[in-house]
Amino acid sequence: MLIIWGILLLGLAACSGGMNHAGAAVEALSSGLDSTPRALLSPSPSPSHSPDSEERSEGFIPSPTSIPTPAICSQTTGRVESGELVTELLPEPLKYRVYLPPCYAEHLQRKYPALYWLHGQTYTEDQWLRLGAAETADRLIAEGVIPPLVMIFPGEQDHYTPPPDNTYGEALLNALIPHIEREYRVRSERTYRAIGGLSRGGNWAIYLGIAQHEYFGVIGAHSAPGFVNDSEQRLREWLRAIPEAHLPRIYLDTGADDRWRQYTLQLGEILTDENIPHEWHQFQGVHDESYWAAHLETYLRWYAQDW
């Protein structure tokens, strides 16, 4: 996958804003919903620096804190459901899986934060689950480290076409999210709706999370190499168009020996240049499933830290 980093944004240019966002690049803030798909970005020059340490972090990972559970739950494991969604936006039904936390069926008055987790190129909607997402969530919920949440795992069929020619992103926004919010008790506020992904899924998370910032308050990109045909300038324009009060929390990470590492560095530099708060982490590892499985707990703690 010869993919260049730059970042990605769906559709027509809506408000061009030249506003700069104040704050350090490692500070965590909140974000913003616009349903119009927008267009893609092109690469910027190679980053001017590269970390030498095995692990480098901008920002911090909070220490575990106990989160009180509002109702007693005797269950220790959640359950996973499978579904298909027919939409005119895609040539075939969109397959997805949903993780429901322990006692979801018993606590009928409760609504949950929603994490949309996207898989990598050539994989399917079960990738995060194979890596242990459900078991890790079960354990962290039982320990009171994170609150109960719903995780949605959409499947992508066209693994090689980038947006805007690929309508997968539009289907997620305009078909899957409304479907999930009708069928499951998830919160619809953007601060309780997160999107993240690994590899190509991380590309989509950045593309949708920044271009359509009003949908998501939390964005995670794990080893994301970027789509082709990206424009750095367009990325900067869309970042400047996000109201300061609606900035999302953003998390980037990559392995020290990841073959696409330079593009994650480049993205972090763009966010820093634009004064966009974010966390950037480098850990030991390469671009493979062992790396992402090893950091599942870190990811879930980070997504849920403000829920």
Report the structural category: alpha/beta
- How far do the termini sit from each other? 36 Å
What percent strand? 15-25%
CATH topological fold name of the domain at 96-304 = Rossmann fold
Query: How much helical structure, as a percent, in the residues?
Result: 25-40%
H/E element sequence:
EEEEHHEHEHEHEHEHH
What are the low-pLDDT stretches, counting only 5+ consecutive residues below 50? 1-67
Rounded to an integer in angstroms, the radius of gyration calculated over CA atoms is: 18 Å
Oligomer: single chain
Q: In this structure, how is the largest beta sheet organized?
A: 9 strands, mixed
Describe this structure in words.
The chain is of the alpha/beta class and 307 residues long. The protein has a domain at 96-304: Rossmann fold, CATH 3.40.50. Helices cover 26% and strands 16% of the residues. It contains eight helices and nine strands. It has helices at 127-130, 133-142, 168-183, 200-211, 232-241, 261-273, 289-294, 296-304, and strands at 56-58, 79-85, 94-100, 114-118, 150-154, 193-198, 218-222, 249-255, 279-283. The chain has a nine-stranded mixed beta sheet with strand order 1-9-8-7-6-4-5-3-2, with helices on both faces. Strand 2 and strand 3 form a beta hairpin. Helix 2 packs across helix 8 (296-304). The longest helix is centred in the middle third of the chain and has 16 residues, at 168-183.
